[in-house]
TrEMBL record:
This is Meiotic nuclear division protein 1. It comes from Saccharomyces eubayanus. It holds the Pfam family LZ3wCH. Keywords: Coiled coil, Nucleus. It is found in: Nucleus. Coiled coil: none annotated. It comes from the Eukaryota. The gene is U6500G00980. Residues 118-168 form the Leucine zipper with capping helix domain. The lineage of its organism: Eukaryota, Fungi, Dikarya, Ascomycota, Saccharomycotina. Its main location: nucleus.
Length: 174
């Protein structure tokens, strides 16, 4: 099975092996010239990518040298508009502060705003807590009843000893 997968990979992805179906037999072949041509094409493509990348690097180096020579200017022009660096930095600072304030306001609003999904989630959570509370109170009542029947203790004494509130006193004679 591993050999079959390897051969299929060499056919599909690499193009190293060629296959032809003749009747009910698959014929596989690989010519040296075909492999060499594939390698040559790959090398030419890589050489072209290297040249393009070297050209990009040279352009970036020229722009960097130009920027380093000129330094940061307080006034600069983009298109037909002239900008002052300090004014833009101050505007940026104010904008960032405003964004921060507004995002905190938005978080506060989102935390107190109720939508249908949030209401449904809260309902499910309350229902779950109610079910858990009912199980706990039932278990307490079962334990009180067990102690009452096993040791002949009065339920009031048990509740007083374990500091169980009187609200749980529903079924005294179950």
């Amino acid at each position: 099975m591993i050999v079959k997968d390897l051969v299929q990979q060499m056919i599909d992805e690499d193009g190293v092996i060629s296959v032809e179906k003749c009747g009910n037999i698959n014929i596989y072949w690989c010519f040296k010239s075909q492999t060499l041509q594939t390698l040559y094409d790959s090398s030419e493509m890589l050489k072209k990518k290297i040249q393009d990348t070297e050209g990009d690097i040279a352009t970036c180096k020229q722009e960097l040298e130009k920027t380093l020579q000129l330094g940061r200017r307080q006034k600069f022009t983009v298109g037909q508009e002239t900008y002052i660096r300090d004014v833009l930095l101050e505007q940026r600072k104010k904008t960032l502060e405003e964004i921060k304030k507004n995002s905190t306001k938005l978080q506060k609003i989102e935390s107190i705003r109720w939508d249908a999904a949030k209401i449904q989630d809260k309902k499910q959570m309350v229902q779950l807590k109610k079910t858990q509370l009912e199980k706990i109170t039932d278990n307490i009542e079962i334990l009180v009843d067990y102690l009452y029947k096993k040791f002949f203790l009065q339920p009031e004494q048990i509740r007083k000893e374990f500091e169980i509130p009187e609200e749980f006193k529903e079924f005294a004679d179950v």
